[in-house]
Every structure is written in structure tokens, then in C-alpha cells.
């Protein structure tokens, strides 16, 4: 379909972008367009201005700052997949990104766009939660940091104000942790029916840290804290993993849709959590 | 005279690359939407979001929107727009409600068009739709066929007084006798879910009028340009000879473009009214709602057998969903499967009943296989169930019942004569390629070990009915038209050949296949043959492409016309060489006087001589061209054995196809590469029905699977590599010995896959998984069979 007409602005700095957003209360940021354009074409939204971030140089790329990996919001999925620093400091991101859509989508879609879109079926929000990442936003009142746990507010809704831009994501180093993104979808190259992001740290065999976050088990990513508690402190053996995974859906409110009813998703989350943890404790 | 001698072996049987592909692959295509004529205006339709409502439409505000040329409601055009045709009256007392291109006072499915805007650009037309005011007064909705048949059901067409479109039944043999005290019954209900055809190219129509002359050129993304011309003439009163219909490059159809659509008649009417070219192209969202759907049947089946599994009789009761209106062939589709439920098996009695039912959903019509996939699914699933019941291998149960190769031609129970076949040979080849014994052994091991991922093996030994169709057969069944096909072959002065055909390809490769046939018949190079199609000005006679008819009917017409040209050339060659025709041999494109070396004329030389006509025999008509209109003798019946192995993850329900072997017998093969391509595409669509696709409506009648994301057609990444092979049993109903292949893969694969899924889960007590066998449905089937609630 054809979107409703809109103005198009293409700033080259964050300040200009924020100003462009401030100038039109019905403006929207355009990143890779992989989620926004279908919405416009189906006329489910009709922003009056699109602020295209592609020329904002400072939003592109990955760097290491102190203990953190810093990923610019406009870094594409494909760039992340081929970035050595991501592979070293946060391999979970690379693993999950490899499951996102198809080649074309990964070449256009961005890390920041995926997080800002906050689709509960999207794979990267749960990953950001599992990693305890920090979102850095810039708006008319300057810069602020939002922990991932507070960033995803509701279905397709983040803590970003309409005139704020997500500029980068700071990710604590998890080099040496076991990790796994266990994704279940019906079709190749599609969103998750359920996904499980798992990180496990072991010291002398024992599990000292467990982080598990679930994709598409609620209106926003769900931290499976009962699983984390159950596995941490154990020897990380198969019995402990299976027992911990049995708590995966505790507190989750999975949706029902054509891909699966809530009870099926709850079941899947337990199976997939067991599989994810089995790999993550593996090393 | 056999076809083999006649066509030689040079081209026919060669895996020629398709002549069509270079321009398709490099994007130099003429899709209908690419056609840009000066002064074109663009139409956009407003469609109902309600499944059933009384409407009042006011388009006046839209007329003031930027760029708008005209805007009309259905009521505005009620007198100018005739109702759309349904050409197959399946019973004398069928109910065929009026079907206006734009709804006038009531909408009956979500997507029913209520108004049209014409503007200078497509964007302006779409924007202006927002200005149309429609008052929808909701009416009760009925979506479920069984509900629709109840006395207290809401009516889709209140003035019809019923939701039943037709009731049809037939019996063959002594049904009561066959069923009385049969020791074994397999009684099942299977549901053929509603499918959305999803052709890659959406529908599109351009109509260019020449107002002063009253002439119209119509481009349409259609399978049936000849029918479009005929019906536009009938529905508008414009003479056929003033309507030229062109089907340019057409990006797939699968039956969905075998129709006369509202938008074709509407665009024509708008062009006529406005006196300028009008274009309409559907969006993908519109394609989901307003292009016909396929399948949607409930099958109640009862197979009566002896204790050793020999089939005595079969009872079939169908409910077939028509949707809200009848399209061109809607009620006939379930009945095209009527005679195919017995499959390849012998039985003493057969009973078939079918009720066509209206619901507030998109109309159904032909979709790849059209009635025959549904029938084949039923019998092939029943045979696997029978095998399981008797603890006999599913191949063995088939052997006990199938027609043996020495029994052909075989008059089957439903009145068809199967021309030829060798089920034993195809099955032997398939089991060998599949390593059937090896996989069965692995299955036993994994069952024993309680592997959470179980292996299942599915069998489908199908046959299908190809080559639509002997005209009398069609007439006897209430179809308005015939089943012949026309071709003209012209050997041009330069020695090149033009073959003009009445079939209308949209992906099948006719240009290549027909070139091969003509090249062999006339002894000319493959590259020297041009095939002209899909334009009623160039090819005025034809009945187009559907029902696996193009080669078995159209190809034979081409061959016959080419033979006539060759015979004519021979007459002239004899005259030029001053010998009797009996003294001439024709080989490699040359006429040679037997026993006189050097006394030859090439067919190209003869062509020029026929053009110049300086020296021709008495009564010889100058030029070398000939027409042939072929009336088919009978259907042909390809068959094959498909074997599928699946891994089923019993924890998640995921099904992964591990191995797929298709051994098809499509008679004599003209181009193995094209046959292979047809098989691959068919398999993809059949597997899609088995595992992935379903049109789901919510309780208000909204299509919830109305996008590619929700409808989930498979991509290459979702499909396995196929192992394909062929056996070759020539057809005896046409001189080329060819059968059809367009629908075979779709027909065979769906039951093969579902049989495999169910086979994997038998140890869990599962006897069926409803289609599509999505992970959730598979998991639920296991869960329920294990006594769990879900
Ligand atoms: C066919 C297909 C398959 C896909 N499969 C998957 C999949 O398997 N898994 C998955 O996770 N995703 C999938 N996606 C989505 C893909 O990951 C997108 O890249 C992502 O959802 C959005 O990123 P984008 O850069 O395209 O954002 P856009 O579409 O441009 O924007 C999305 C939203 O975020 C806002 N936004 C974007 N950037 C910013 C910013 N820096 N600051 C503030 N707001 C911003 C926009 O205003 C818009 O509302 C798929 C998409 C397609 C088309």
C-alpha cells in the first residue's frame, strides 16, 4: 500500500535530529525502516515527518569504552554480526542477531531500531535485558541513561519520550560467560514464537551467575528470575538445569495468537530454557 | 504412426533451458502494472472491513480530493455493471446469487468492494478513499459451514432463503452390499483448510479505449485472456472483435487468475465511461482478501474393507465452502475431485455426496489441483490409516489394492478410464531412492530408544486427472464452455517458424516446450521457433491454461498444426523436385528424393517458394501455414509414488522434512528440466498446505492471516532438497503420449507429508494431526493422545 504523505528530514547530527523531532509532535524517527515502513504502508500509523538518522555519523559503529561495549543505535544487524568486538565482549548479541530475519533485513535493520521498536517478538530486547545493558538517550533536555529493565515499558512502547533519540547501548563485558540464544519460530527467517537468551558464569565448576530473559512471553521481555535463582549456586549439572528450566514461565503472561496459544508458549519456554541453559553451562 | 517416429528425438526429451528466462531473470518483463500509457488514470477500491453489513455509501467528498477524476459507489454504477459470471452450473437447481463488482446495498465478506476512486496518480486515488463515507449497519455473520446449514443460521443471501448452493450425489456399484457386514471400517473426518494462492505477481488490469472507434485493449494479469474477452463482450455488449485482451508476462496464477474478476469488468467500464486508459493494481493486502481462496472442505469418509485390507467400498460426504459468492468455477471445484477419491485403487462400490455452502468469506475457486488434491489427500490418508489398523506396511496395503500395470486401460469405479500407468515400477524406484528399508529400521531403533525426536515415513501413491477436457464431458456436467485447444503454425519466408497458441502460460514454459515439438516436427532449429501467446489479436482462438491441459491438449494441437505444415511443404517440395510425394524422404529438415543423391530441398527453401508462389501445384494455397483445433479424446492420468521422511521433535512439535523422494510418471516428457521445475513448485505448494498455510478468520469474519507474515507461505529456506525421478508410461489418449505435470507435485505431496507426521507419532497414540501440522498442533495432538488436556 501507499503510506499517507509525510515530510522527510535528514539531519547529520544528533542535535539537528532532536530539533527536527521537537519541531513536529507527530514526527517519527526512521532507522532501517524494516519495522516502520510496513506500519506506514498498512496505514497503521501516519507520522507527519520522518526524521531519517542514516546520515548521523556518531550513531554508527561499535567501540569499547572501559569495561563496556558501546553499540551505536544505527549499527546494522549485519555490521554487528561481523564485528570482532561484539564477538568477544558480547557474543550473545551476535548469536541472537544471526537469527534475525533474512539477509536483506539484517543489512538495513539496526540494533537501535530493534530496541526502540520494542516488539515483544523481536529477539534483541530480551538479549539486552539478559545482558543488563544500558540505553543512552538524547532529547531536548540532554542525555540520560536508562537500564534495559526500565526501557521496555509495554507492547511497542519504550521509556523514550517522543522527542528523544536512542543514541547508543552500553553493554557490560560478558567475555568468558557461557551463552545461548535459543529461538523457536515456525518459519525460517521469522520472528520468535518464543526465544530464550541465557548467560551463565561458572567459577571452579559452580554456577555463580545466571541470567535468563525470554522473548515473546509477555508484552515486553521477561527476566526469568526464578530460573536464575534456581540455577545459581548449583553445580550446573543436567538435573539442576532441568529443575531450573521448569520455572521458566513463572510470572510470564504469554500472548495467544496464530502461532501459538499461551499454554503452548509456556511449555515451549520451559523446553527452550532447558536447551539454552544446557548449552550455556556447557563450556 | 506414433509420436516418437514423427517428432524424432532431437529436441523432444532434451533438457533445454527455457527461452523465457533471460528476460524474466534480468527484469525486462512486461508485467501489467509496468504498462504506462499516456493519460492513464488510476483506480483504487474501498473495501468493506465488515463481513456482513447493510451499507450506505457517499462518495461525494472524495470527488473534491486532489487529483480525483471520478468516484462512484456500487449504487452509482448499478445499472452499468452487470453481475459477474459463474460458468459451471453443477445442478439444475443451484443457487447462484447476483454478484455485482461493487456491492450495492449489502457487503458479504470482509474485502467486498463498496466504492471506487479514479485519480491522476495511484497515491491520490488511495488517499481519496479516506474521504468516502460508508455507513455499515452490521448484519449477523456466518463463517462455519455446519452452522450455515442449520435452520436458524443467519443467511449470507437473505433473498435466497438458504445458505445451500447445491446438493450433489452419485453412486457407483452396490454400495449397500459393499458396506453390509464389512469386517473393517476406517471412518474419518478430514478438513482441507482454506488456502490463499499468493501468486508472486498481484492482479492488475489496464484498459485503453479508443473512444471514437469503440475499441478496447485490455491488459490483465490473467491465465485466461480468451475468457476475459468473451465475458467482457457478454457483460458489456461490446462486440468481441472490438475487444483485444493481452495477458503479458504473468507472474503465477495457480488457479487464482482463472477467473473473471470484479476489477476487470470495473476497470473496463471506467475506461469506457471516462474515455481514457485506466489502471488498477491490487495491493498484497487486497490480494489476500479479494483474490479467490482455495480448498476449504470438510470430508467425511468411510472406507469399508475385508479383514485382509482389500477395499470393498468408499463413501465420501463433502461440505464445500463457496464463500460469499460464486466466481467463475466455484461450485465445480469440489466436484472435479468427485471421480478421484478412489485414487489408484480397485473397489466394488463408491458413493459421493457434496453440499456447497455459502459463508461470509472470500469466494473460493480453482487453486492448484482444484478438487483433486483434496480427493487424493483423503484416500491416501485413509490407506495409511488402514495399514496402521492392520499392522501392515502402508506400501503393502497399497499393493493389495492398486490397479496392476497389466490391467490398463482400466475402467475405475467412478466412471473414468485410466489410460496407462505402472504403479509397481514407480513405487519400486521410489523405495530404492528413499532407502525405505533403511529408514524403517532407523525408525524402529528410535522408537525403541524413546528418542524425543521421532522419525516418520509417509507414503502417497497418487494419480490425477489431466488434460481438461473433452468438451462433451464438460457439457454433460453443466459447464458452459468446451475443452478444445487451438494452434496455428506458420513457416515464414525467412525459414523461421511462428507457432501461435491458444494456451496462455504464466510460468509453465510453453514457449520452450512448444518450440521443441515444432522443431522436431519441421526439422528446424529450436531457436528458429517463436511461440506467440496470450494476445487475442494474435491468437484469436484458445481456451487458455489451467487443469494441466496445456501440453496434453494444447501441445497436441501445436504438433498437429506443424504436421499439416510439413505435409503441405512436402507437396510443394515434390512439385519443385518434380517427383511424387511418395518418392520423398523427410529428415533433418530436408526433403530428399529417395535414391537420387543431391536432389533435395530444405524446408526453408520450400517455405520461400511457398511465399513467392512462382511455381506451385494446382490448387496449392500459397504460404506454409496451418491451423489445428484439437478436441481431446479423453483425459490422461499421470501418477507417481512420493515418499517423505520427517523428524518430529515431540517436545516442541516441530516437523522437519528430512528426505523427500518423488517418482512421477507423467507420460512422455518433452523437457525434463521444465518437468522438474513443475514438480519442485508443486511440492512446495503441497508441503505448504501440509505444514504451514491456513487462512484463519476471527469470529467477526476478519481474515487474521492477511499478510505474508501471518499466512506463512514457505520460502526456499523452509524446504528440503528434493530427490526426483521419473518412470515413463506414455499416455494412450493423445498421440504425443504426454500427460500433465502442473498439478502433480501439489496433489501428491500433501498426504505424503501428513502421513509421515502421523506415522512418527503413532507410538504416542496419535491418529491424525489437522492441517497445517504446525508445531503447536503437533504438540497438542501428542498432548491430547497422552490424555492431557490442552
Ligand atoms: C521480513 C522481516 C523479518 C524480520 N525478522 C525479525 C526477526 O526474526 N527478529 C527480530 O528481532 N526482528 C526481525 N525483524 C525486524 C528487524 O529486526 C528490524 O530491523 C527492527 O525491528 C527495526 O529496526 P529498524 O532499524 O528497521 O527500525 P525502523 O523500522 O526504522 O524503526 C522502528 C521503530 O523504532 C523507532 N526508532 C528507530 N531507531 C530509533 C532511535 N535511534 N531512537 C528512537 N527511536 C527509534 C522508529 O521511530 C520506529 O518506531 C524483521 C523484519 C522484517 C521486515
Automatic annotation (TrEMBL), chain A:
Quick one: signal sequence residues? none
The record's listing under Gene3D superfamilies reads: 3.30.465.10, CO dehydrogenase flavoprotein, C-terminal domain, Uridine Diphospho-n-acetylenolpyruvylglucosamine Reductase, domain 2
UniProt keywords (A-Z) are: FAD, Flavoprotein, Oxidoreductase
- Protein name per Swiss-Prot or TrEMBL: Carbon-monoxide dehydrogenase medium subunit
Per the UniProt record, the source organism is: Actinocatenispora rupis
A Pfam family of the record is: CO_deh_flav_C
Question: In this protein, which residues make up the domain named FAD-binding PCMH-type?
Answer: 1-176
What domain of life does the UniProt record list for this protein's source? Bacteria
Query: Can you tell me which residues the record assigns to a coiled coil?
Result: none
In the UniProt record, the gene name given for this protein reads cutM
Q: Which GO terms describe its molecular function?
A: FAD binding; oxidoreductase activity
From TrEMBL, chain B:
What protein name does the entry list? Carbon-monoxide dehydrogenase large subunit
Cofactor (UniProt): Mo-molybdopterin cytosine dinucleotide
Q: Which SUPFAM superfamilies match?
A: CO dehydrogenase molybdoprotein N-domain-like, Molybdenum cofactor-binding domain
Q: Which domain of life is it from?
A: Bacteria
| Start and end residues of each stretch annotated as Disordered | 1-20
Query: What is the organism of origin for this protein?
Result: Actinocatenispora rupis
Q: Where is the Aldehyde oxidase/xanthine dehydrogenase a/b hammerhead domain?
A: 26-140
Keywords annotated in UniProt: Molybdenum, Oxidoreductase
**Tell me, what's a Pfam family for it?**
MoCoBD_2
Annotated TM spans: none
Q: Which GO molecular function annotation, any one, does this entry have?
A: oxidoreductase activity
